[in-house]
Amino acid sequence: MNCKPINIKDFTPAEGFVMRLQKLIKREVIPYQYEVLCDRAEGAEKSHVVKNFENAAKALRGEDAGDGFYGMVFQDSDAAKWLEAVAYSLALFPDKELEKQADELIALIAEAQDEDGYLNTYFTIKDKEKRWANLLEGHELYCSGHFMEAAAAYYEATGKDTLLNVMKRNAEHIYKRFITEKHEGYPGHPEVELALLKMYRATGEKRYLDLAEHFVDSRGAGGNFYKREAELRDWTVWGNNPDDRYYQQSYAPVREQRDAVGHSVRAVYLYTGMAGLAAQNGDKELFSACRTLWESITQKRMYVTGGIGSTCIGEAFTTDYDLPNDTAYAETCASCGLMFFARAMLENDLNGEYADVMERAFYNTVLAGMSLDGKRFFYVNPLEVIPGISGETATHWHVKPQRPEWFTCACCPPNVARTVSSLGTYAYGTSGDICCCHLFAAGDVDFENGVKLRCSTEFPYGFTVKYEILSGNGRLAVRIPSWSESFSAKINGTAAEYSAENGYAFFGVKSGDVLEIELDDTPKFVYCSSKISENTGCAAVTRGALVYCFEGVDNNGDVLSLSLDVNSKIEQGEFIEEPDVYSLKINGFRTSSTDGLYTTRRPEAVPETLTAIPYYLWGNRGENQMRVWINYR
Amino acid sequence: MNCKPINIKDFTPAEGFVMRLQKLIKREVIPYQYEVLCDRAEGAEKSHVVKNFENAAKALRGEDAGDGFYGMVFQDSDAAKWLEAVAYSLALFPDKELEKQADELIALIAEAQDEDGYLNTYFTIKDKEKRWANLLEGHELYCSGHFMEAAAAYYEATGKDTLLNVMKRNAEHIYKRFITEKHEGYPGHPEVELALLKMYRATGEKRYLDLAEHFVDSRGAGGNFYKREAELRDWTVWGNNPDDRYYQQSYAPVREQRDAVGHSVRAVYLYTGMAGLAAQNGDKELFSACRTLWESITQKRMYVTGGIGSTCIGEAFTTDYDLPNDTAYAETCASCGLMFFARAMLENDLNGEYADVMERAFYNTVLAGMSLDGKRFFYVNPLEVIPGISGETATHWHVKPQRPEWFTCACCPPNVARTVSSLGTYAYGTSGDICCCHLFAAGDVDFENGVKLRCSTEFPYGFTVKYEILSGNGRLAVRIPSWSESFSAKINGTAAEYSAENGYAFFGVKSGDVLEIELDDTPKFVYCSSKISENTGCAAVTRGALVYCFEGVDNNGDVLSLSLDVNSKIEQGEFIEEPDVYSLKINGFRTSSTDGLYTTRRPEAVPETLTAIPYYLWGNRGENQMRVWINYR
Question: Are B597 and A532 inside 8 Å of each other by CB?
Answer without folding.
Answer: yes
